[in-house]
Design a protein that fits this description.
This protein has 334 residues and is an alpha/beta fold. The protein contains 13 helices and 11 strands.
């Protein structure tokens, strides 16, 4: 059970892929959010149950009706939010596996009868892999994702790549405005990349903040070859990210989507610890001021604070300099 969000669903998909690789006959049911389902809906041999949290109690009743009469060998409770914990009560399972004590929040521990092993300073993806460990699934090396798309969407992506040539994607909008870099600096880095001979495109979802953020970047005379904000399905976006040379993004879903298709990511972080939530396999490319921000606010280094402690403030992303991002970009040009 993992309902949201896009980045976390990417991490969960890696865990599902691991189970399928080692236990190909396993019957897997995934309770998932309505939007997130659109990304993983073509994963083979997975039964999806869509949980539309906007429906409130009706969503729980629908889930209860769908699984009525079923008893699962194991329920992987991979979301600690109280809403998910309460909904999980309608699922009957012999073993209900939850997070360890340190990662249990919102009474999560009350709904589980088994816990994953403690894992200090685990990335979210590694935390999900702890559930596969608890089941006894062997580890997978290298890490793999199996998130198929339709042939039509694959061809759409190839068509965009042919039309654009070598290009870089900027996904400027996170789920909250405070986690976004300054639009003028997005424009500056776009122009820097353009001057080095690569096209730059924007991407994002259909929400108001995504549109406003993209418009703000464009308003600073950014050299943008094409603006895909709100114009792609999740599968088209995945293909756009796949064919990119690299991606620049704050703490947002496209950064993790790009990781699933092996596209390098320059992540921009100030509020959350990129060691926990950064684009997996690309932590070394992250530009982060989190360590300084959390030390200033808490008076202690992140190593002395609860794992996942967030820095707060509307201006923290301003601390990420253009030169620091250019340094990471230049590494990808060499």
């Amino acid at each position: 059970m993992r309902l949201s969000a896009i980045g976390d669903v990417c991490h969960a998909a890696a865990m599902v892929t691991r189970i399928q690789h080692h236990w190909p006959s396993a019957e897997i049911t995934w309770v998932i959010g309505k939007v997130e389902y659109q990304l993983v809906k073509l994963m083979p041999n997975v039964r999806f149950i869509i949980f539309d949290k906007s429906q409130g109690k009706a969503a729980v009743e629908a889930l209860k009706e769908t699984v009525q009469g079923e008893v699962f060998d194991a329920l992987l409770m991979m979301q600690v939010a109280l809403r998910a914990n309460l909904a999980s009560r309608v699922i009957r399972a012999k073993t209900r596996i939850g997070f360890d004590w340190a990662r249990s929040k919102e009474l999560h521990w009350l709904f589980a009868n088994k816990r994953v092993a403690a894992h200090q300073h685990a990335h979210v993806l590694e935390g999900f892999m702890d559930f596969a460990d608890a089941l006894g699934v062997p580890p997978s090396d290298p890490l793999q994702w199996n998130i198929p798309v339709s042939e039509e969407d694959a061809q759409w992506g190839e068509g965009q790549a042919q039309a654009l040539g070598k290009y870089v994607v900027i996904a400027p909008a996170a789920s909250k405005a405070e986690r976004n870099w300054l639009p003028e600096r997005y424009a500056d880095i776009a122009n820097y990349i353009n001057d080095k001979g690569m096209s730059v495109v924007l991407c994002g979802g259909p929400g108001k903040l995504d549109r406003e953020t993209a418009d703000a970047v464009l308003g600073h005379n950014a050299k943008i070859a094409q603006d895909f904000t709100g114009k792609t399905s999740l599968h088209q976006l995945l293909m756009l990210l796949k064919h990119a040379e690299f991606v620049i993004a704050p703490d947002t879903g496209p950064a993790h989507m790009a990781t699933t298709v092996d596209t390098p990511v320059v992540g921009l972080y100030a509020h959350s610890n990129p060691r926990r939530t950064g684009p997996y396999k690309n932590i070394h490319r992250v530009v982060s001021v989190y360590d300084d921000c959390i030390l200033q606010q808490k008076g202690k280094p992140w190593t002395a604070l609860p794992w996942g402690a967030r820095a707060k403030g509307n201006d923290l992303m301003e601390k990420i300099t253009l030169d620091a991002v250019i340094e990471k970009v230049d590494e990808l040009f060499t």
